[in-house]
Amino acid sequence: MHIDIELGSSRVIATVVDTAGSPVAGVPVNLSGMSSPSSPQSPPAFPGTVTDASGTATIEGVTAGHFLVYGSHTLGNIQSTAIDVGPEADVRVQLTLLGKRNHVFELASSLGLPLAGAYVHLKSDTVMSLQARPTNSMGQVRLSVVEGSRRSSLTVLADSQMLWSGCIAFSDGDRTRVALPPVAAGTLRLTRPHSAQGNPLLISDHGGVFIADDLVRWKRSTFTESSSGAAYEIPGLAAGRYRAILYPGLDITPVVQAACAGAISFDDPSAGTLTPGGVLELKWPAPK
């Protein structure tokens, strides 16, 4: 199989520094194409490179378009940034490497008992970082928290049911206790036509953030395609208000920030209420 990759004549020059402003060497920097309102078709991704002793990484031959610059290191993640690249131009961007620390989350059921064997997803509100691990017999799970994070989106799953999902606040200490409310769940159906651009993403009114892939991976979830489009059916979602929105790129951080800050409106056609034992049908894109 022969694949032609179109190379441009622009460069992206990224400098990575730590929180003190000193350059950091050996940080992989990646460049991925993103869609935008003016250009629904994403430009191609380009091979990343690694910062040198001056903390600089240069990516050559970039075509014009809208891109996400991001990267990770054993010490932490760099703040991902969206950039616009023009033809025959150099784009310079400075990125900060944010350290990470171990943080223990202690989960308890609505009866106050340790929640063992639950799967915990944490989406960072600071950098593009997603984690998922199970709790131990004491209901504890150790996750890496990015420096500067104060609130992130936490989702708790057990037996293919979502026990809770929303924004969780944590301090500079080494552990946070999370007491889950009683379980009240229903089924959500999300449909989309083939002509819809981008990825559907669900937001809950208590701060839960779900990428389509999250929903498809649940054991009892179903995903079907037909001549008219695609449909997701997700049982076991916690009761509450939900909205389907456009997810145009890789970096979910701004969406998590908006959800945790309560900056997303639920008073529009793309929102609906899921009642205990009920079924909520949402269409994406939402009807005008």
Task: Please give a quick description of this structure.
This protein is mostly beta strands and 288 residues long. The chain is 5% helix and 52% strand. The chain is built from two helices and 22 strands.
Structure notes:
The strands form four sheets. Strands 1, 2, 3, 4, 5, 6, 7, 8, 11 and 14 form a ten-stranded mixed beta sheet that branches. A four-stranded antiparallel beta sheet has the order 10-9-12-13, covered by helices on one side. A four-stranded mixed beta sheet has the order 18-19-15-22. With 288 residues, the protein is mostly beta strands. It is 5% helix and 52% strand. It has helices at residues 212-217, 253-260; strands at 10-17, 28-33, 46-50, 56-62, 65-73, 76-78, 81-85, 90-108, 119-123, 130-134, 140-146, 151-158, 161-169, 175-179, 185-193, 199-204, 209-211, 222-225, 229-238, 240-247, 271-274, 279-283. The chain contains two helices and 22 strands. The chain starts with 9 loop residues before the first strand and ends in a 5-residue tail after the last strand.
The CA-CA distance between the termini, in Å, is 43 Å
Q: How many E strands?
A: 22
Percentage of β-strand residues: over 45%
Low-confidence stretches: 1-5
Mean pLDDT over all positions: 86
Report helical residue fraction.
under 10%
Q: Spell the H/E element sequence.
A: EEEEEEEEEEEEEEEEEHEEEHEE
Q: Give the number of helices.
A: 2
Q: Name the overall outline.
A: flat
Give the biggest sheet. Answer: 10 strands, mixed
How much is the radius of gyration in Å? 21 Å
Structural class: mainly beta
